[in-house]
Amino acid sequence: MTKSELEREREYVSGLYARLDELQDLATMQLGQVRRQDVGGNHQSRSERDAFARIYEDRIVQLREVNERLAFGRIELEATASDDVDGDVHRYIGRIGLRDADLKPVLLDWRVPQASAFYQATAANPLGTRARRHLISAGRNITRIEDEVFDAELLGEAGLELQGEGALLAALTAERTGRMSDIVATIQAEQDRIIRSDLKGILVVQGGPGTGKTAVALHRAAYLLYSHRERLRNSGVLIVGPSRSFLQYIEAVLPSLGETGVVLASVGQLFPGIDAATEDAPAVAVVKGSAAMAELIARAVKSRQRVPAAAQELEVNGDRLTLDPQLISNAMHRALQSRKPYNEARVVFVKNALAQLTRQWADQLRSQGNSVDESDHSMLREDLRSSMDVRVALNTAWLPLTPEKLVQDLYARPQWLAELTPGWTDEKRALLRRGRDAPFTVSDIPLLDEAAELLGEYDVVNAAEKREAKQQRRRDIENAERAIENMDVAGQVNAEDLADGFAEGMAKGTTAERAAADRRWTYGHIVVDEAQELSPMQWRLLLRRCPLRSFTIVGDIAQAASASASSDWQSALRTLIGSSEQGERWRLEELTVNYRTPSQISAAAERMAITHGLAVTPSTAVRESKWPIRVTESLLDAVRHDRAISTEGTLAVIAPAGEVRNVFAQLRTEFADHIGLGSHGLTRSIAVLSPQDAKGLEFDSVVIVDPRGVVSESERGAGALYVAMTRPTQRLTLVTDGDLPKGVLEA
Ligand SMILES: Nc1ncnc2c1ncn2[C@@H]1O[C@H](COP(=O)(O)OP(=O)(O)OP(=O)(O)O)[C@@H](O)[C@H]1O
């Protein structure tokens, strides 16, 4: 039976590829036509043509991306459920949807509601299906099929009910490449429910290491972009991860699902223009991350508006004027009434102060017997504006400020910090102290953003340009709508996409490009990975980026390594959810199956974590390893032994952060071309990393150097070791010249 069935599937799938090729040829032809169009010298028509060309180019790339594993599954419907599909009982599921020349659907996109049964159906609840089939392929060829028949009698004993077990295990044991790949063919039912969960509100996904949280978060982003395309196309989706190396690890997943329009950012990249990767010492990060910093920044901004204590003498064009503190105070009052942010309110302040000074000067001139009428006022105002004395006086009262300068001053001027923080101890203040030239750290990013929010646009001219750019964007969309009508391609091309390509004014680029560059952008949805690490200040920043509070938050409280991390979601998310209980403003889902780590290794990691008092979420590993955990005294022996088993696949050597360079130096001579340090190692077969760098990543094999050192290195050292121990998909080696941390070995 299998042979002829396999043949049948090969035939069907090769029909799908033929259709894919046809569509690709069609898009290529359309691209050629557009390029050949003579549009004359008119700029608008040229940019229209280029924008159309870009859309066809994107379409061609998208069709090319899905070339591998185009179709990966089939469900067989019960006769009644199949009535709506012309009596056809089979539905094929793939990475994109395809229709034949008569517009009959021949392949369903995995994200459409009808495809959900492929992931959700079980023997106990078959959801209108009779059977599910996985199509396993190499290149364009189907090599194997795997059937599940939903018949109660065929169901084995109760236990883990894995969907498409053979296909899943093949995916899980495959050698790792250093890049995460999509799991679209083998998404499990508990994962699918989360992926398709409602866009609205805050969804928190808790799960132990390797339970697929990252995979689920990325597939959810692809799902939301597909099913809420209209809404999310304009607002965009932001995906936040812990580090650059993590982003590098996940960056290929969404393009392979045909989605390119998301913004990926590490927590150090959330303030446009700065890319911070340096971490502060834990005690410093705790202070900078606490919500009290928001009040401090607000006080700091306020303290830069100062009414002088005494009157000042000003010289303007040879005349002497007295600047009364009351005049400054009046102008400030007016400016504050405008409720604009600091720099923008300053414009009101300066205008008002100059108007008052102009009147004062005119009165003074008149009292000296000069004739001054209204038409002279503007000249006087200009003289005042360009007078050095006036500028100094007004700037002293209200200095234009950038967020960078405000934060640098806060750290570099101990006297000022002390004035602003009367309740703090000297030791606490000393934690913030540093030179003005020191680069910004990851924990400075939310402080800069907080300051920017209160300061507003530094460059008010620039702000006007941005407003103009927004209007230009509206005009571009209107033009795009007209062009679509003229070219008779309604339904194939979207006006927003077309306008993306018009590239006029500042609003150029795709939604994602514009969003990433704009601090004030508000996203339609935000996905946060390794969310247990975020500080209240980081949550404040993210909330500003999505005031509608549509979030997918994934993480594992037990893996928290940062000193400011909380021990439960309710308190970790306080900034986002206030004091609301679960179910009110946020919902919690849990993932319980460990797809990454073999059972021997995950058992040891869990035992160690529990012994050290971490609140681990127990999970069930889906497979065992051929290799027992190995313990050795020699680093070189550990790496050589592992490479002797296999030089293919990836190895991470994880050491206490303070030891990483030393470990790298010891290994470099022998493994020169194959080894890299930190994120540079992720493209090599051996990477030397700290536990922090290894967060969220996975490797075929892991060597942990000095596990006790990892535990004792920081306050949350046991969490760091738990992270390190749960990175391998195959083998774990521990290098120690003494005892292992408690719990690693069975009692
Ligand atoms: N349904 C699935 N099919 C195939 N592979 C899967 C599936 N679910 C998860 N995996 C694989 O399991 C591994 C672990 O997944 P992932 O990195 O998303 O876990 P995680 O919960 O984010 O882990 P951690 O908390 O340790 O970072 C990945 O290689 C992922 O591709």
UniProtKB/TrEMBL annotation:
GO BP field: recombinational repair
PROSITE patterns in the cross-refs: UVRD_HELICASE_ATP_BIND (PS51198)
Gene3D superfamilies: P-loop containing nucleotide triphosphate hydrolases
InterPro entries tied to this protein: DNA_helicase_UvrD/REP (IPR000212), P-loop_NTPase (IPR027417), UvrD-like_ATP-bd (IPR014016)
Binding site for ATP: 207-214
GO cellular component: cytosol
Keywords for this protein: ATP-binding, Coiled coil, Helicase, Hydrolase, Nucleotide-binding
One of the record's GO molecular function terms: ATP binding
Protein name: AAA family ATPase
Native source species: Marisediminicola antarctica
